[in-house]
Design brief:
163 residues, mainly alpha, Cytochrome Bc1 Complex, Chain D, domain 2, globular, binds heme C, electron transfer activity, Cytochrome c domain-containing protein, signal, iron, Cyt_cL
Amino acid sequence: MTNLMKSAFLMTLILGVCTTNAFADGPISLVDTQSGAPLAIAPDQFDTPQAKEFLATGKNPYVGDDAAIKRGNKIFQLYSCTQCHGADAQGQVGPSLHGPDFHYAKDATNKGMFETIWHGTNGGMGAKGKGLMDPSDPDNGLSPDDVLKVIAWVRSKGTTTGN
Ligand code: HEC
């Protein structure tokens, strides 16, 4: 091979690698709201097609889905979110979740709101992710799919889709 051919070959390889990476889907990098540290959630906890799509793209496919919104409202009540945020998420002890302005700006995105609900904040919002509510019981808490449904309900009350 001539040198010219060699560099042409190398350039093609490098370009190929770059474009493949640029367009590859996820997984997204989830971080906690407290410090921005990586959130370690076992990939097999993303166990529905919708949760898998979220992990790959950061989009919440349940936003605008009536059945998921209804279920999300139930979970919001079951996990006492209503106690602090009010029955319509309008705000009580905790802030309103309607937006478009959020205490944590990233909560305007579904990835950001997922991270806040999963791992809590330093300002009075406890963690709700699976096993985080009660570290001695890895089954106590919300699955990623549950959190996405809660977010879909919250978005139905607010002014932003987060997607
Ligand atoms: C014990 C009271 C309490 C409960 C229960 C609670 N929260 Fe919160 N939540 C708060 C407080 C207080 C804040 C403000 C935290 C801060 O400023 O760091 C907050 C913040 C949030 C935020 C961030 C809002 C923003 O403006 O960025 C979201 C989202 C949220 N809560 C969702 C939920 C969901 C969903 C549930 C139920 C699964 C829940 N919370 C349960 C007290 C609560």
